[in-house]
Write a structure and sequence with these properties.
With 184 residues, this protein is of the alpha/beta class. The protein contains 6 helices and 7 strands; from the N terminus they run H-H-E-H-E-H-E-E-H-E-H-E-E. The protein is globular and about 40 Å long. InterPro entries: Methyltransf_25, SAM-dependent_MTases_sf.
């Protein structure tokens, strides 16, 4: 576990990510209501800060203590240092959940349960790509085609797409994006 934390700390220092909000979050934030949000694997807080500026009280969860140290101290941000391999989400707690560039299949059913009725989910991460793409080496961190869509069956799907993209470090990759709402 300590090795994982050190690996993530080094990654955030040596390969810093861009600081702007993820475009899918910026595009669909207007569909969210309420004021309680969760940013899973928040990193240095680029999306967390945006959510707080939009009036949300944000639980910002990450394993990297270095990354969390880069998240602003703000009364609207609750920084939670936790190993997402064992962290559990509170049921019926969030009006908005975002999960960007991170995959824990263990958390997928918990994400659905953590949304309040009418809660919004914005999820985007890497999918298996063939050819000259940069992607995580471990297949556990890569979605299969349509896997994200199937994981959230039962939610009202607002937007879903699988596409080629340039990642945070300027490398070609493939991602899946999903925006969905939990109905009563």
């Amino acid at each position: 576990m300590i090795e994982d934390k050190e690996r993530w700390n080094i990654r955030h220092v040596e390969k810093p990510m861009r600081k702007n909000v993820e475009p899918v979050v910026e595009k669909y934030i207007g569909l969210a209501s309420g004021d309680k949000a969760l940013d899973i694997a928040c990193g240095i807080g680029r999306n967390t800060h945006f959510l707080a500026e939009k009036g949300f009280f944000v639980d910002a969860v990450d394993f990297s203590d270095y990354a969390l140290s880069q998240v602003k101290d703000d009364e609207k941000i609750n920084k939670i240092e936790a190993d997402l391999d064992s962290y559990n989400l509170e049921k019926n707690a969030y009006d908005l959940i975002i999960n960007i560039n991170y995959l824990s299949r263990r958390l997928l059913p918990q994400i659905k349960e953590a949304l309040k009725p009418n809660g919004l989910l914005i999820f985007e991460t890497f999918i298996v790509a063939h050819g000259d793409f940069n992607q995580p080496a471990n297949p556990e961190y890569l979605l299969r085609t349509n896997e994200l869509l199937h994981a959230f069956i039962g939610l009202d799907i607002i937007y879903y797409e699988e596409r080629d993209e340039v990642n945070l470090r300027g490398e070609d990759t493939r991602v899946a994006s999903l925006v969905a709402r939990k109905r009563c």
